[in-house]
Every structure is written in C-alpha cells, then in structure tokens.
Amino acid sequence: MLQCGVAQIDITPYLGSHIPGQTFNRLSTGIKDPLYAKAVVFYDGQKKIASVVLDTITIDAEAVKEIRDKVASKCSVPSSSIMVSAIHSHTSAPVGDLYESKKDPAYMEFLTTRAADAVVMADGKLQNAKVGASYGFEDSIAFNRRYRMKDGTYRTNPGPKNPMLDHPLGPIDPQVAVVRIDDENDNPIAVLTSYACHLDVVGGTEYSADYPGAIARTIAKALGNDVISIFYTGTCGNINHINFPGIGKPSSKGKEYSDYMGCILAYEVLKTREKIVTDNQCKVNDASTVIKLDTRKPDPVAVKKAYEILTNDPEGKHFNELELTRYHENPKDHLDAELQVMSVGDFAISSFPGEIFVEFGLEVKKQSPFKVTITAELSNGSLGYIPVREAFDQGGYEPSLTTYTNAGPESGYQMVQALVSLLNKL
Fold first, then answer.
1. pLDDT of 316
2. Which of 14, 34, 98, 315 has its CA 20 to 30 A from that of 134?
C-alpha cells in the first residue's frame, strides 16, 4: 500500500536582507506572508522518493547537494531520490548572486537545514495514503510576454494595450495540474498543483510567496488548516500575468491581484480535485541524468561596443552592456544540467534546471507516457533562461547574454529529449 507524508516549515529571512528578482537591489522591509519549505515523501514499500519546494526565487546546485546530504544523514530517503525546486517568487530570500542582489551565506545555511528538516518531518509522518491526478484549465490570467510588433520588431513586455502589438510569439500552458493526496479514510492530506506563470505579481520590498501563497490559503480554508498545498512552477520563462491584449480583467501589480490569481487557480484546483479518483496501490519510481550544455560566446564587436557605452555611463544605467562585459570577463565553457523525473502511479514530475520557455514544457507533456505530468522549472539548480531557437535571433530580455543566462540555443531541446527518455524508463 502506498504511504505518503507531508510537512512545511517557515524559511522567512530576517528583515534587511537582499530581495533578488530585479536588475537593481532591494532590501526587505516587512512580511506580507511567510515563506515556506514544503516537502512530500512517497513510499510504496520498496522505493522512497521526496520532493521539497522552496518559496524562493531560485536554488543553486550547491544548495541542492547540501539539502540532499543533510536529509540522507537524518532519515532513509536516498539523496539521489530527492528533488529540490524553487517557486520563483520575486519577493523572497537572498539565495543567489543575481545581478545586483547578493547571496547571504548565513541564510543559505539556515535554508538548507530547514529544507532538509521539512523532508525529514514528512518522512516521519508517513501514513497509508491514496493518490490521484488530473488537469484543470485556466487561460485568463497568464500571457506570453514576447511579442512581434507591427513595425516588425520583437519585444519582451511591450505593455498592456500597446497599439503596436501584432501577435504573441508563442503559446501559454493553460493546464492546471492537480494531484490529490488523501489518507486511507479519504481525508485530505495535501494537494500538489502546478501552473505556468511568472511569480512577479506582488512586487515591493515585503516578503511574499506571491500567488502560490494565496492558493495555499484558499485551499486551507476549504479543506482544513492541516492540508498542505505544494506548488510547482511550470515552464514560464516567457509567460507572465500582464494582460497585454487588454481583453477581460485588466492585470495589475500588488498583493490584491496576486490574491485574485491565487483564488482563481485555487477554485480550479478544488473543482478538479473533487473529480479525481484515488488509488492506494500506486508504484513509486524516479530516475535522473546529467547532461552537458554548450554555452554561448560573446560577440567581440558587441563586447567592444559595450565597453565604449559603459565608459560614458558612470551611473551604470546600461544593464545589458554591463552584464555582457561581466560575462566576457568570466565566461563558462559548458553547463551541467541535472534532469530528474519522479512518478507515483499515473502522474509524474519532470524537473528543468532553469527558467524554461513554455514550449519545452508543453513538449514534455505531449510526449510523456503518464496521465498527468508536472513540469517543474527551477529544480535542482538554475541555468538561467532557456529560450527556443528563434528567440536568439529575435532578441529581447530572455536570450540576452548575461552572467545569469548563457546556455546555447539547443539547450532546451536537449533537456526535452533527456526528460522524455527518462519518463519512458519509469
């Protein structure tokens, strides 16, 4: 019989910490809602797997290893069978050297310990469980943020109701993945959900888990305060909440709109959950691999021009040129991408280490042999933005060569191929 345990633990940093997520630095001044590490452990009597999701903007490979090592030293979950994901909240903790924001080593020690504790606690709460999964649908709150303009140019975030909008350069992913987890008496234990939309809705300098926090609060009101909501951010490197066409409810910035998005998604989750048929005889499995990705090389002409621009820019306003020169001075030969998949019965979780364009997540879902497949970006590390090939010619924010984003144009396709191969082996 399948067993499952879940747990969550507060990981909110102290005030005055850096808040990554913008090209400029912010220092935290308050707490809109707490940040958590949330863990789920599955065990079928033979195989045990764990997933821990952090309310942070990212998580690097070094921290992933520390979390895994700390878990393995305290309980029987194998380190190789632990997936570590970040929700990508832009109002969260100092977990990385991202542009002008700096990682806090003291906080990282706290975070990795607390994340490991969440897994250990979940493992200690294993109980007989029933699981099932399905998809809901929501297409009114997420938008592709890359556009072709009427003058033939391409832009990221061109602004709502811009009269020069021609058409978006890609799709969205309207599926809302829902995993229902109940105890043996059909009482709810947890709900796993996934949706593809950037978490940069709240803004400001107060900590918040953004719309997944609102999902959790709404689900707790409906199902009980002990029911844990774990959210996996889908592939949304080119998707956000800004209503560029201006059709329907206008989008806005702030906690009120974030709560609105969370309520919309939570109601869809609850509706979908009620229809799910659960099973207590699910098999558990996982697999992983590491692939090498090529990096891009700075164009010498662009580098020379960037240095010339920066010479006359004492205030550092030319961010793209600054980042190009920084990468030119410290280039990377290649990137190691860990790709991991997990399955419980007829649903699976596939991990991407970066901010992945939605097309790649859709392709993994299309080729997956499982009824429901969660595509969790920013899992087991981050390699920056992973765009589709044509985006590199079109330009815009996401494919810009920076210290954060430097993977080659074939990277996303290599990831899809590796993940689909792993899914078919489960």
1. 65
2. 34
Share of the chain above pLDDT 90, in %: 92
What is the band of 318 on the pLDDT scale with cuts at 50, 70, 90? confident
Residues with Cβ within 8 Å of residue 32, at least 6 apart in sequence:
91, 202, 204, 206, 207, 208, 255
Q: Which residue has the tokens 């859709």?
A: 362
φ/ψ bin of 265: left (φ > 0), alpha (ψ from -120 to 50), beta (otherwise): alpha
Bridging pattern class, strands 284-294 and 334-344: antiparallel
Q: How far apart (Å, rounded) are the C-alpha atoms in residues 386 and 410?
A: 9
Mean pLDDT across the chain: 96
- Return the pLDDT at 24: 84
> What contacts 175, CB < 8 A, 6 or more positions away?
135, 136, 137, 195, 365
Helix, strand or coil for residue 367?
Answer: helix
> How far is Cα 351 from Cα 169, in angstroms, rounded to an integer?
24
Per-residue pLDDT, averaged over 231-238, amounts to 98
Q: How many CB atoms lie within 10 A of CB 63?
A: 23
